[in-house]
User: What shape does this take?
Amino acid sequence: MPRYATGDRPGARPSPWPRSGVPLGGIGAGKVEILPDGCLTNFTHQNNWDRPLGPATGLNGIDARVGNHFAVWARARGDGACRTIARMLHTVDVAGLPRVQAIEYTGAYPISHLAYVDAELPVNVRLDAFSPVSPGRVDDSAVPAAVFLFSVTNTSSSERVEAAIMATARNTVGAWNVGRYNQALSERGIKGVVFSVDGPLPTDATAGTMCLAAPKAAGHATSTVAWNLKTADPFNVDLSNVNILPWESFSVDGTVPPIDCGLVQGEAIELAGALAVRVELGPGETGVIPIALTWHMPNSHFGHVYEGSYANAADVAADVLSRWRELFEGAKGWRNALAGVFPDWLEDALLNNLYVLSSGSWWDRAGRFALFEASRACQLMNTVDVLYYASVPLSWFYPSLSESCLRQLAAAQRPSGYIPHDLGRGRVDYPSDGTTAPPLWKDLCPKYVLMACRDVLWWGGQPLLGEVYPSVKKAMAWAMASDLDGDHLPDNEGADQTFDNWHIRGASSYTSGIYLAALLAAERMATMAEDSDFARACRREFELAQRSFDEQLWTGSYYRAATNDDACAAGQLNGQWYATLLGLGHTLPPERVAQAVRTTVSLTGSASPHGAVNAVLPDGTADRRNPHSGNVWPGETYALASLAIYEGMVDQGLELARKVWENITDGVADPWDQPDVIDSVTGAYGFGDHYMRNMVVWAVAFALSSRDARVAAALERLKGA
Assistant: This one.
């Protein structure tokens, strides 16, 4: 798993550390992240996916880390003496308070594990922070909560010890600090603080409730309802200049004082609340203290599916804390299913590329599910050319969510049959034609057909087929009509496909190859629908298109990028990859497919140490004629790696994928906020954030499953229902 150490520790990574952490929050619910330095940051739980609250983008100009803290207290008695010690559970300075010496951080979505290191503490403190996201259990995976399980172990073999964990949280509810208030919570077996706001505007999407709570059964719980984080200088609030008022009491006896400063009526007050849970441990004993940070933010125009289960954040906390063991076991289900099946790096990549489920998804109150293309850089929803990749694991684990995407796209289909590029920007009710449209994009209709065929074959059978088949026929008719010169291949008219900085004229191997696969998919669905006329039409068109593709694009060792471009493109056989994934057979002569894959892996894979370059010139150098062709796309590399494995090049395919992942975890060291584009020379991140395409690394596992029964069994264990 990605491992990072911070603080005074051998092997600690020098600053800057990863700017991201494993996201904590349910599918479509927003999230918070805990970083390797112990700080909570990058909050998007208030309908602010495109404006996460972080160090530089905090609410009201205040660093979002301020006020959100954990701490430990311990008192040991031995040899007639009493020793008390308290530490902030960070490796960054917070108000000059003592902090642990180091943190060892391991991330395996949906769980992050922190081991706090301090030689002076008489207890060992570990944290498992997790999102309640379980394979196949879609309803339990949409809970708006981050759960923190602190394991505190008495390291003495002979003496008892008292220990406590303190959690603090800042009230960020509502767009203005004036009107915020906190309330004590002590009901339904939990104790904590509820964070609210009075008089928010009806359009304030940040309004709702938050809750910080723990089970009463976990130990002696005390709470500070509300205090002001600001010091005497209200215009200068940061981690070093903040009032952690409960610390004075907590550092003495492991409790926090019963203070409530009331409703905020002036801007010099920034509210926070605190919770402390104290336990007594025998020699060698471990106590587990669960703490939940929950939220309920219904004020978005489209709302959240979780509103149907919870009335407020306190409801969420009561539910989560009553069954935290069950939810934690569910979260561990991902890693348990994969354990010992894959190389360590690939297990890491599979688990951690699913992080987008928490950081880049939206599931509204009407049940419509969508993935952001990139939650900050490009807030387009269910972008078809990218969803084509990302929905491979989505469909396998959560078929109902994938089918929701298909139904929305079918409903958005233009009268011409054109499948729009997306469902809208930050919305799912106003689709657009594409980032560079006009011209209309040529890869969207074939990709929609392939996604529909996948879900029909994997899950839907006749009921889903009946829903999507009319839109499939219309989409294929549109795709067929995009042939402008009578060669039976779609004609690109510019940057009108997923490489929207790459201008192509005429037939391209990427788009036309996907078109070939879509013809096979449409034929399969027509046969299932007993539509023999359309099945025959697809077969005739396929045979003509295949011949034209082979004649125009074959160079003798690979298929050229386009009729007017001799570059060797990593995605030239992308359609073959999808056809193989779905069991549709070969789109092109098998011997030429095998030769092209060998050549492509060799040329594009050797042009960069960080993955497969999207295109190389015939002399083997990276094609730098545009920003897309000359760089690496992790998602495209994973698709090529998958195809290589299907074609028997297992070691070469795995090596391609490994290069990408190791640059992400070790080179750039930011695995939970990935781009679409990586600089092929430096490995630096380019365009995109939380980019959904990279989830397609799971295609590597699907390819391996065709050769390894253990992999197939692992995938079956994770399969949704």
Observations:
- The mean pLDDT is 95.
- The chain has 16 helices and 25 strands.
- Residues 105 and 114 are 5 Å apart (CA to CA).
